Amino acid sequence: xxxxxxxxxxxxxxxxxxxxxxxxxxxxxxxxxxxxxxxxxxxxxxxxxxxxxxxxxxxxxxxxxxxxxxxxxxxxxxxxxxxxxxxxxxxxxxxxxxxxxxxxxxxxxxxxxxxxxxxxxxxxxxxxxxxxxxxxxxxxxxxxxxxxxx
Length: 150
What we know:
By secondary structure, the protein is α+β, with helices and mostly antiparallel strands.
């Protein structure tokens, strides 16, 4: 059944009118619940004496005494800074653009003289081209991160 705006508005009006009818002509409200008195009657026992600031004087009100100095804070152990990306092991050779417009970048891994063909975000032979900028590339390979300039 297709959605009809007039049908929807008619049904919404009927529901509202039915709700108003239940409120207006509904059952009689129940009698209110009797409330307890807000101030209970005073007890027959005697109240404790009032405490004043002058009655708090004595040895128990003096500040605490430290018997030994606190331990020095634990030494902060700084983690070793992350190793910077290697900038000498990979060389940028060029770029190929496919018929569908996808760019494939060519790199050479110098220690093994291995040629790498990488597309951004796609892993190939354990290598991933993570980031491409106008001036550099970021690659993730077996030895960690590599920064390659154009």
